[in-house]
Automatic annotation (TrEMBL):
Gene3D superfamilies: 3.30.470.10, D-amino Acid Aminotransferase, subunit A, domain 2. The keyword Amino-acid biosynthesis applies. This is Branched-chain-amino-acid aminotransferase. Pathway: Amino-acid biosynthesis; L-valine biosynthesis; L-valine from pyruvate: step 4/4; Amino-acid biosynthesis; L-isoleucine biosynthesis; L-isoleucine from 2-oxobutanoate: step 4/4; Amino-acid biosynthesis; L-leucine biosynthesis; L-leucine from 3-methyl-2-oxobutanoate: step 4/4. Keywords: Amino-acid biosynthesis, Aminotransferase, Branched-chain amino acid biosynthesis, Pyridoxal phosphate, Transferase. Its cofactor is pyridoxal 5'-phosphate. It comes from Aurantibacter aestuarii. Acts on leucine, isoleucine and valine.
Amino acid sequence: MTKLTINSVKNSKIDHVNFNELPFGKVFTDHMFSCDYVNGEWVNPTISEYGPISLDPSARVFHYGQAVFEGMKAYKDENDDIFLFRPEDNFDRINKSAHRLAIPEFPKEFFFEGLEQLLLLEKEWIKTGKGNSLYIRPFVIATQPAISASPAEEYKFMIICSPAKSYYAGEVRVIFAEEYSRSANGGVGYAKAAGNYGAQFYPTSLAHKEGYQQIIWTDANTHEYLEEAGTMNIFFRVNDTLITAPTSDRILDGITRKSVLQLAKDNNIATEVRPVSVAEIKEAANNGSLKEIFGSGTAAVINPILGFKHGDFKFELPALTDNNYSSFFKKALNDIQYNLAEDKHQWRHKVT
Ligand code: COI
């Protein structure tokens, strides 16, 4: 296995960045990590200046969408120590996604060495204080110049970083999908495959025109069961019970999602992981037992949903009370992520 090469930049661009105004994912740090897959092995792990890469126009990623990614965040505590949250889970998941897209697995040593060295170089970009984080985007693309429709023999694995505040700038209301689908049985819905996201853009743009920010996808067969929002897994609070759909080959196994379920268990909050029907949520809305809907994800953290629409049925969620679940879970997660609370499940990973 080849050794990591680090070519650090002489002049950082950090002084030109306004950290108080950070639209999500538009500002990138000084460096990036890359590693190439050629002749059946991953070689040339390198950290170099962030910037454009050159690819042959026939690279298979452009034609067949052979691309997978991850979303992670780094946090800093008051002592300037840097932490990741459950990074092993991201590592496992990118390889699970890669496997489904016939992309070779990435070695664990390269992933963690590249990631941690990159974060140490970019430590000034990680600001202290809740709400500040460095969003980390590992991804793999098929680079082989060849347009025959088969798996590539050459790939590039990269990690880029973007200082982040919140993902959704404003209020989020959703449409429950009735026509379009995000994923189907036996498909790639569980993978963080680039195409899963691109395929949502058009239906989501139609939702935007109606004043809704996101779609909660329903099962492709019947459109009767609520699955996930594409950028987030989804939770429903009915009375005091927290309900979410089980993961499947159609739904992303969200790391924030499973952390919320564990925190609920730790705090004696009743949970039900089972198919959630559109009909029962509309019924709960009508009879007053639907108290909250929120999304969970790395980028979004915990994002309350203020209203939903399904056909002609429109509903505004009640105003959040003091003991609302979305604020509770957001605080509980953030306290662990920013090293402000006990980490009884060893989710925090200190970067050294
Ligand atoms: C994440 O939450 O990290 C994701 O990958 C979702 C993406 C749409 C920002």
